[in-house]
Amino acid sequence: MTEPVFTAAELAEVKAYHAPRYTFEAVDSLLWPIVLVLVVRFLTGPLYRVAVRLTSRWRSALLDRVWKGKGWGPTTVFALLLFAIFSLVTLPTDIWFGFVREHQYGLSTTSPWVFALDSFKAHLFTAVAVLALAFGLFGLARRLTHWWWVMGLVATVVMSVSAALDPYRSRLYIEQQPLPDGPLRARILALTKQAKVEVADVLVDETLSRTVRLQAYFAGTGPTRTIVLNDALLKNLSEDEILAAVAHESGHVHESRWPARVMSAVSLFAFLGLVEWLFRRSAKRGWFGISERADIRTLPLILLVFDLSMTAAGPLSGLVSRRREWAADRYAMTLTRNPESFSSMLVKAARVNKMDPEPPRWLVLKGMSHPPIGERIEFARRFQTR
Ligand SMILES: [Zn+2]
Fold this sequence. Notes:
Bound molecules: zinc ion
């Protein structure tokens, strides 16, 4: 009989930690579409009038020319106001789950100041993205009827370039150092070589000043690919367990990316085509006082459609993702021929990160990206006895 992952007391604590999250997840997935419907129905008109009033004195001959008209002011301000409202609505739960409870359960080590600064940075980047998207997408759509083909191509290219830039993005938040030369680094590089995975560097994220959680991931692609481990992982795991984690990530590198790429490109184009349909429909029917295609007042409706499609796609994309995790686990244990260390790595990660070994079934089916850690540990223990 294999020993359980958690003692009864630990399990009770883990369950207590997760219970409100599950409730929130359930309520949120039902409530969010309702909030969006209310925004579409009652807020779109008034918010647009506020945006028009706020920007009534804005003048720029250059932007008028780029935009082909004077609508750029209300368009961008409407999008930003909407973003501000959503941020305010989610702020209390962001602080409660992201800070208060993380501290109560000893998972977060962040000071309120760093937490505030991190969320400010994240909101600032998103605001800039919202601004660029509102101006760029709606501006392009005003000029070109076939904007959505152009946008789809640009987005596809941006997504693949952005994967290559991943290693640089995390540095906006977290200090990174190369893993110093030594036996661990040598073993990691030997393992990735054996796995035929090209690696530019092995880096250590200094996250202990924020969280006690263990993390390991590969960032970038091809020549920019780096292995990123965090200091918590180095502190808690043995060398063999660290290699088990790296082997799992190497398994992901070998996944065939084409089905996912084709699927995401197809869904992207389908979604943008739907947006164009909404543009025309709203102009024809005069929804929210719209008289022309590509009016920003369709944005809340677009967000509602997006939310519903993501919820609908969740079960399938979760299933695909969980299958990949199983395959990566199997790959790792075959590569290292050390399922014992793989299983003890999972156990340690589960304990430190306070992962629920048995999350509710509905949550898994709704689209969890990873199989329940309890099942993964069970699988690794069975693998040993094969
Ligand atoms: Zn994985």
